[in-house]
Design goal:
Blueprint (H helix, E strand, L loop, with lengths): L2 H6 L19 H12 L6 E7 L10 H5 L5 E6 L9 H12 L5 E3 L9 H11 L8 E7 L5 H13 L21 E4 L7 E5 L11 H9 L10 H15 L14 H12 L2 E2 L3 E2 L1 H13 L11 H15 L5 H17 L5 H4 L1
Parallel strand pairs: 1-2, 1-4, 2-3, 4-6
Antiparallel strand pairs: 5-6, 7-8
Protein name: G domain-containing protein
Keywords: GTP-binding, Nucleotide-binding
GO molecular function: GTP binding; GTPase activity
């Protein structure tokens, strides 16, 4: 890529909020899982809440604030290795500490298996004050596909030196009900520590398309709910905010997703009948590359700029939601999904 091209390129400052982007992904097992969590509170000692480090604010589910009460909570930011590196991370961590109001925060990095060792020590300390005859129990909660089961397996490996016990996968919906207790620390003469895996829970209503697209790009929403080309375009928007060099193998700097996908498809052999580029497959592949860290590592949330405003939004959204209202939201979402057929017409006109 020539320096002159890079210098002349002007990235988009805003991303169009498409009417076709759904405002909810609240499914039946999300509601039933939340109901079950609330009914178990009396037998739970602590909560581990997982959030995707690439969207550490947007992946917060404010419903947990109301549903899980005042139970001690530990925050773990998953997929930390996919958020990039640099001095800015230190400021990001400081902002997240402020945002989380003093709750213990941990970071999970797939390249450092023992990164959750401090969390194990933290739990051991608090378990030492519990009834020695009663297990110290917690639940692991978070948005769909945020990495809850992987966190449990990592904790079990560190605390027990045993293989994984929770099923994992690369798409949401692997865990659809609360499982049985999984031992992560065994202590003779003191309380052993157990955790329960839970289904991911989405919010009943997403107030804006930008946040919905962030969660979809991170894999918290079922693939296909949002058209791949729209999702790839949203990725392009963020890549251009950081560096167009991320995709220089396939295209010069551009704001045109169809031009990028056309070139990407041809250079990767994604060709359909008639010699035409398969841009939809190219879009799916492009998004997958970013999710696995092969197409730039960066945060989607502007933590240093957005946390204050989003905190106020979360507090408003976290107002108590009755289970009847959740059922109503779920029914409305299913009705809307049945009538609406998301198209990508705007990209081909």
């Amino acid at each position: 890529m020539k320096g002159s091209q890079l210098n002349k390129f002007v990235a988009r400052l805003t991303f169009p909020h498409f009417d076709s982007v759904p405002q909810s992904y609240f499914l039946g097992h999300h509601r039933s899982g939340l109901e079950k969590m609330k009914s178990m509170l009396s037998s739970i000692d602590f909560v581990i809440e997982c959030r995707d480090f690439r969207s550490p604010i947007t992946s917060v589910n404010p419903m947990f604030e109301e549903a899980l009460g005042e139970k001690p909570r530990l925050i773990v930011h998953t997929k930390y290795d996919l958020g990039g590196k640099g001095r800015k991370h230190r400021r990001t961590k400081e902002a997240l500490r402020h945002f989380n109001r003093g709750k213990p925060i941990f970071y999970a990095d797939i390249h450092h298996p023992n990164c959750l060792g401090p969390m194990i020590e933290h739990l051991k300390y608090y378990a030492s004050g519990a009834d020695k005859l009663v297990p110290y129990r917690g639940i692991v909660v978070g948005m769909p596909n945020v990495g809850k089961s992987s966190i449990i397996n990592s904790l079990r490996n560190i605390g027990m030196h045993k293989a994984k016990a929770a099923r994992t996968g690369n798409h949401p919906g692997i865990t659809r009900k609360i499982g049985g207790p999984i031992k992560i620390v065994e202590r003779e003469g003191s309380s052993s520590i157990y955790v329960l895996d839970t289904p991911g829970v989405f919010v009943p209503f997403m107030p804006d398309a930008d946040r919905m697209l962030k969660l979809a790009l991170c894999g918290c929403v079922k693939d296909g709910l949002i058209p791949p080309t729209i999702l790839a375009d949203y990725l392009l928007f963020h890549m251009n905010k950081h560096s167009p060099l991320y995709y220089e193998k396939w295209s010069e700097p551009t704001n045109d997703i169809i031009a990028l996908l056309d070139s990407y498809a041809r250079k990767n052999g994604f060709i359909i009948k008639g010699g035409l580029p398969n841009t939809e497959l190219a879009a799916v592949n492009l998004v997958h590359k970013w999710r696995t860290g092969q197409l730039g590592k960066f945060l989607l949330d502007d933590v240093l700029g957005d946390s204050g405003q989003l905190q106020m939004t979360m507090e408003k959204e976290a107002s108590p939601v009755s289970l009847n209202k959740l059922r109503k939201v779920e029914k409305e979402w299913r009705t809307q999904a049945g009538k609406q057929r998301i198209t990508e017409k705007g990209y081909h006109d």
